[in-house]
Design a protein that fits this description.
By secondary structure, the chain is of the alpha+beta class. The chain folds into two domains: 9-55, no CATH class; 57-103. Helix content is 50%, strand content 14%. It has helices at 24-40, 58-92; strands at residues 9-15, 47-53. It has a two-stranded antiparallel ribbon with strand order 1-2. The longest helix has 35 residues, at 58-92. The radius of gyration is 22 Å and the shape is extended. The termini are far apart. The model has no long low-confidence stretch (mean pLDDT 91).
Amino acid sequence: MKVYKPEWRCTFSVNDGVEESANWRTRFAWSLRRFADRLERRGRTLKIDYDVAPAVSQQEVDTCLGKGFELTQGLLTQLAHQAACEAVMRDAKAELFEEEPRR
């Protein structure tokens, strides 16, 4: 009886800067990314590297990335909401946020 064993591989990394050991092309690419970020004055450039086997279509990768960024936006929105609520509470009830002296 033949045993079938599915095999797959997926590596995924996100970088927001150049590594110390990078070659000159990579360093130049990151300097262009930093320059573009300064021109736009907003946002942040990220480089996404992935390797998937067996291969999946570019459309499937794009769909996954889009869903991931939607999730990220939801999480950032929750953090902003929590920070706004905390700011209001600190203003209205500052005594609740006073730190007790350590013994």
